[in-house]
């Protein structure tokens, strides 16, 4: 693979360069391997453990923040807004997902009337969310309370979102 076209940039894997308007940004070897691994699995949830083994070549029991740090750096290079990515999504507590949409420009979320990106349904392992999922209409607004890390923020507007 030589070049990948994303929403706001193109990625030259041979030269490990991101071309974004008039800017050229270098990818590290690890960032290039990470992105290449993800684009070969569009729409698939890839666990951190799999990334550690396949991209970083770490043993399966390694505890590290390397994947999270690399994802944050990579988003700054390839996304219009790293806080609201179009391509590389974090699925909290699970891993990452790559979405290959290309429209040649940033999505103006304010013009769409919402700051929420339309996202595919991601099934969470928590049985409580699975029970709730069938009760929700697409435009339902609900409030869920619970301890930190329970996954409350992933349930928005009647959809299970992964960011």
Strand content: 15-25%
State the helical fraction.
10-25%
Strand order of the largest sheet: 1-2-3-4
Radius of gyration: 17 Å
Domain count: 2
CATH topology of the largest domain: Arc Repressor Mutant, subunit A
- In one word, what is the shape? globular
CATH class of the largest domain: Mainly Alpha
The succession of helices and strands, N to C, reads EEEEHEHHEEHEE
Helix-strand makeup class: alpha+beta
Low-confidence stretches: 104-125, 156-163
Number of strand segments: 9
Q: What's the average pLDDT? A: 76
Describe the fold and architecture.
With about 160 residues, the protein is an alpha+beta fold. The chain has two domains: about 100 residues, Winged helix-like DNA-binding domain superfamily/Winged helix DNA-binding domain (Arc Repressor Mutant, subunit A, Orthogonal Bundle); about 50 residues, no CATH class. Helix content is about 25%, strand content about 15%. It has four helices and nine strands, in the order ββββαβααββαββ. The protein has a four-stranded antiparallel beta sheet, with no helix packed on it. Strands 5-7-6 form a three-stranded antiparallel beta sheet. Strand 1 and strand 2 form a beta hairpin. Helix 1 crosses helix 3. The C terminus is likely disordered.
